UniProtKB/TrEMBL annotation, chain A:
It is found in: Cytoplasm; Nucleus, Nucleolus. Keywords: Cytoplasm, Exosome, Nucleus, RNA-binding, rRNA processing. The keyword RNA-binding applies. Signal peptide: none annotated. Component of the RNA exosome complex. It comes from Dreissena polymorpha. The keyword Ribonucleoprotein does not apply. One of its GO terms (molecular function) is RNA binding. Residues 45-172 form the Exoribonuclease phosphorolytic domain. This is Exosome complex component MTR3. Its main location: cytoplasm.
From TrEMBL, chain B:
GO terms for biological process: exonucleolytic trimming to generate mature 3'-end of 5.8S rRNA from tricistronic rRNA transcript (SSU-rRNA, 5.8S rRNA, LSU-rRNA); nuclear mRNA surveillance; nuclear polyadenylation-dependent rRNA catabolic process; rRNA catabolic process; TRAMP-dependent tRNA surveillance pathway; U1 snRNA 3'-end processing; U4 snRNA 3'-end processing; U5 snRNA 3'-end processing. It is found in: Cytoplasm; Nucleus, Nucleolus. This is Exosome component 7. Residues 32-166, 196-260 form the Exoribonuclease phosphorolytic domain. Pfam families: RNase_PH (PF01138), RNase_PH_C (PF03725). One of its GO terms (cellular component) is nuclear exosome (RNase complex). Keywords: Acetylation, Cytoplasm, Exosome, Nucleus, RNA-binding, rRNA processing. The lineage of its organism: Eukaryota, Metazoa, Spiralia, Lophotrochozoa, Mollusca.
From TrEMBL, chain C:
Residues 31-166, 192-256 form the Exoribonuclease phosphorolytic domain. PANTHER family: EXOSOME COMPLEX COMPONENT RRP43, EXOSOME COMPLEX EXONUCLEASE RIBOSOMAL RNA PROCESSING PROTEIN. Keywords: Cytoplasm, Exosome, Nucleus, RNA-binding, rRNA processing. InterPro entries: ExoRNase_PH_dom1 (IPR001247), ExoRNase_PH_dom2 (IPR015847), ExoRNase_PH_dom2_sf (IPR036345), Exosome_comp_Rrp42_subfam (IPR050590), PNPase/RNase_PH_dom_sf (IPR027408), Ribosomal_Su5_D2-typ_SF (IPR020568), Rrp43 (IPR033196). This is Ribosomal RNA-processing protein 43. The lineage of its organism: Eukaryota, Metazoa, Spiralia, Lophotrochozoa, Mollusca. GO terms for biological process: exonucleolytic trimming to generate mature 3'-end of 5.8S rRNA from tricistronic rRNA transcript (SSU-rRNA, 5.8S rRNA, LSU-rRNA); nuclear mRNA surveillance; nuclear polyadenylation-dependent rRNA catabolic process; rRNA catabolic process; TRAMP-dependent tRNA surveillance pathway; U1 snRNA 3'-end processing; U4 snRNA 3'-end processing; U5 snRNA 3'-end processing. It comes from Dreissena polymorpha.
Length: 273, 290, 274
């Protein structure tokens, strides 16, 4: 890689120390009755911590923590579009998704890589259906998502986090978008997988090994995003999606409560408004 | 997606037609447009295919090169997709206009081919941890007439089917590894693509959905579901695209249609490719000028 | 209304407060904002710390990797600090490569590390001439509300004190490295650099720990970095001139701040270990 004159540069090549550690045994997650490494049942999700308004510089912001997965999101706008030729009567929504360099097991690069670009697009497509774009013509709303720590189900957490941040920013929406993900391994469906449980293409070539992520607008019962990876049979895919949808519905009150709490504190702090 | 400006009345006409299973060009909801495939068109590639789906025209060139495998996958070769939306295809692609669509298409193709079961990457390994075949798949969009993703995936599958990689013999000699290329130009390996997926895009129009949307239909459609479907009917990748959302029950319907259509598509594609292959070099190539 | 005059005529608004030796956020002129430390918050990094200086927040993650040393210094490891001021932390930053300010801060933190000698780079050696540690210290600003420099230095120092490296040994028989995750070694931090920033208001009034608003209104800035009992770095990038009495005042304040911060880090580290 060419040296970046805008940053402090380290050595040209470096490798993770964990490349030399003895390979640990693959975790078997196929048996349905088996408890997961962190003691959860297949259907259990990790405890969620959700808080809004942490980034005071932004119009709206949210922070979500699902055990080891930590995502922070800020929303700026509606503000003027920088390039004039992008004029449109519909408001624009942009998404910028970034892993911090230290957020994953292996160090990430500063520039957005293909995966981050892909996530940016998926996030945008998950949120666009929920936002009333015609309410801010000629302007744009920018959503910045930063993953502080990645322990699986990042896209799902980002979707939830970003939609709560949009709501916190006072952007008009039809509904919140709640994200959820599942790992499919044979007949087992593991909800809210952590990093070691997530699907990777290194896994065995058997059919029905993959993952699904769903973004749902619960009160409209509309799916705004759905992606899958890995070769899956139709029945398993459908079942996993149903599980995801019901998980989204379960998470809905959590997000509503976080927003209600934020609103209460805002009213108490400034009784005039 | 390339833009076409339609009036509201035109959109209503198309959507109402689809509800009665009658589309603007006379097709049913699950019918593809006329499809032409030619393989082996570009002589300086390892494999190539040109596809024409009504007005959508795509050329795919495959190049096999030797390279180092990734350290985390020492026993596997790899596929790399590169998509170029040329400005010839539609004026919207001028400048950097097609870039976003191009990355989207290449990431969808990469995701659909990511499963170990659809293409055995282990066969592309030459010397474990040292050398492997890297298959560069270059997709060139020549003309845009709707349903780019399906057309591109069909062309990729055809081009991979057409690809021949020179046979290499590896000999170990006192710790040294020697790689020999066979002198016979016909001594080649083929890539097994029977299990490879084709992308089926289902566009939601009104309350129903259609496959292989034309660019006019795409202009009326807010939400699409893209599925990578294999011959067995399994789904290797799924993605919702577009600014709209889908009802939970309609996703299930669309999945079902996608599987049915995808299986049929894969089957007829393989039949055509096989019969073409039997004719071999004798077949008459039409090429680009017709 | 108070809010309107703050937006329309911020300078006059501030002057009214400063005449009475107080700032709009109820701080006195030489008071820092409440400082909060959260240590070890990122599990995927070898060391990490989150610093909140009032509402300004910076998170620092240290990621350790193995690299070949430079030929002229076969035993020295690398330390690579970088500050990210992404589009997330403030409306004025755009996505893309780091801007002027981020570059300035990266260089600044790098100078602090080098001049304070807080790390002995030779302790980062695994096998002389072959393998050394590289510590990538990335400071990501989450919320930009002034004085990010101080927050970055504090986050960096705290993260380094919380950095645990896995043991990597050279196996002579198999001629390769072996990593053991079970035993981890804590990084030795030899000195404790603390940065204190002063903003110059109306050419002569000094404000400690400026907010973003105060930074925008200031006519100059001064940063003093102390390492334990000594001054390690003084930066005054232009702006209004200061006399020697004012400079001495700043340095004194910087030393007392240094003591506060070192105590805070100590307390936080202890509470985590317990």
């Amino acid at each position: 890689m060419p040296a970046d004159s805008r940053r402090i540069n380290g050595p040209e090549k470096s490798i993770s120390p964990y490349a030399f550690s003895k390979p640990c045994k693959d975790i078997k997650i196929t048996e349905p009755s088996l408890q997961r490494k962190d003691g959860r049942n297949p259907d259990n999700i990790r405890p969620i911590f959700l808080k809004t308004g942490l980034i005071t510089q932004a119009q709206g912001s949210a922070y979500i923590e699902q055990d080891g997965t930590k995502v922070i999101c800020s929303v700026y706008g509606p503000r003027a579009v920088i390039r004039k030729e992008e004029f449109s009567m519909q408001g624009q929504l942009t998404c910028d998704f970034k892993f911090t360099t230290f957020s994953c097991h292996n160090r990430r690069q500063y520039q957005q890589d293909a995966e981050e670009k892909d996530f940016s697009v998926q996030l945008l497509e998950a949120l666009e259906p929920a936002v009333l774009l015609h309410k801010f013509p000629k302007a744009q709303v920018n959503i910045m998502v930063t993953v502080l720590q990645n322990d699986g189900s990042v896209l799902a957490a980002s979707v939830t986090c970003a939609s709560v941040a949009l709501a916190d920013a006072g952007i008009e929406m039809y509904d919140l978008v709640i994200g959820s993900s599942a790992r499919i391994s044979g007949a087992t469906i593991l909800m809210d997988p952590c990093a070691t449980e997530e699907y990777s293409d290194k896994d065995s070539a058997h059919v029905n090994n993959g993952s699904v992520t769903v973004g749902l607008m619960p009160s409209l019962n509309q799916i705004s995003a759905v992606t899958s990876k890995g070769e899956l049979e139709f029945e398993h895919l459908n079942k996993a999606m149903k599980h995801c949808v019901s998980m989204c519905v379960d998470l809905y009150p959590v997000c509503q409560q976080a927003l209600a709490v934020a609103m209460e504190t805002r009213i108490n702090a400034d009784p005039k408004t | 997606m390339a833009e076409i400006h339609l009036s509201d009345a035109e959109k209503t006409f198309i959507i109402h037609g689809v509800q009665d299973n009658l589309r603007e060009d006379g097709r049913g909801c699950e019918d593809y447009r006329h499809l032409e495939i030619e393989t082996g068109l570009v002589s300086n590639t390892s494999g190539s295919a040109k596809i024409r789906l009504a007005n959508t025209e795509i050329l795919v060139g495959v190049k096999a090169e030797l390279g180092e495998p990734y350290p985390e996958k020492p026993d596997k070769g790899r596929l790399e997709f590169f998509v170029d939306c040329s400005a010839n295809a539609t004026p919207e692609f001028e400048g950097r206009g097609g870039e976003e669509l191009a990355t989207e298409l290449s990431s969808m193709l990469a995701r659909a081919y990511q499963c170990p079961s659809c293409l055995d990457l282990r066969k592309l390994s030459v010397v474990e941890g040292k050398q492997c075949w890297i298959i560069y798949v270059d997709v060139l969009v020549l003309e845009y007439g709707g349903n780019l993703f399906d057309a591109a995936s069909i062309a990729v599958k055809a081009a991979l089917f057409n690809t021949s990689i020179p046979t290499l013999t590896v000999s170990h000699d006192e710790g040294h590894v020697e790689i020999d290329l066979s002198d016979d130009p016909y001594d080649v390996q083929r890539i097994e693509v029977t299990a490879a997926p084709c992308i089926v895009t289902l566009s939601k129009l009104g309350h129903s959905h259609v496959v292989d949307a034309s660019s006019k239909e795409e202009a009326c459609c807010l939400a699409r579901l893209m599925l990578g479907v294999t011959e067995k009917g399994t789904v290797t990748a799924m993605k919702k695209e577009g600014s709209g959302s889908l009802d939970t029950s309609s996703v299930e319907d669309m999945l079902q249609t996608g599987r049915r259509v995808g299986q049929a598509l894969n089957k007829s594609l393989m039949e055509v490719l096989m019969s073409d292959d039997k004719v071999g070099k004798k077949q008459h190539l039409t090429g680009f000028l017709r | 209304m108070a809010d309107d005059s703050r937006l329309a005529r911020p300078l006059e608004y501030y002057r009214k407060f400063i005449q009475n030796d107080v700032r709009p956020d109820e701080r006195s002129l030489e008071e820092f904002r409440p400082t909060v430390l959260n240590i070890g918050c990122i599990g995927t990094a070898e060391g990490s710390a989150l610093v909140k200086l009032g509402t300004t927040s910076v998170i620092c993650g240290v990621k350790a990797e193995i690299a070949a040393p430079k030929t002229e210094s076969p035993k020295k490891g690398y330390i690579v600090p970088n500050v990210e001021l992404g589009p997330m932390c403030c409306s004025t930053f755009r996505p893309g490569p780091p801007g002027d300010q981020a570059q300035y801060l990266s260089v600044f933190t790098n100078q602090v590390i080098q001049h304070s000698k807080c790390l002995d780079l030779e302790e980062l050696c695994i096998l002389p001439g072959k393998y050394v540690w590289t510590l990538y210290c990335d400071m990501v600003c989450l919320n930009y509300d002034g004085n990010v420099g101080d927050a970055c230095v504090l986050a960096l120092l705290t993260a380094l004190q919380n950095t645990y490296l896995p043991t990597v040994t050279w196996n002579e028989d198999s001629e390769c490295l072996e990593t053991s995750d079970s035993t981890k070694i804590r990084l030795n931090v030899h000195s404790q650099p603390v940065s204190s920033t002063f903003s110059i208001f109306d050419n002569h009034i000094l404000l400690v720990d400026p907010t973003k608003e105060e930074e925008d209104l200031s006519t100059g800035q001064l940063t003093v970095v102390t390492a334990d009992e000594a001054i390690c770095l003084v930066k005054k990038p232009g702006g209004s001139p200061l006399n020697d009495r004012q400079l001495a005042e700043c340095i004194n304040r910087a030393f007392s701040r240094s003591k506060e911060v070192v105590r805070l880090i100590h307390e936080t580290l202890n509470s985590v270990e317990r």
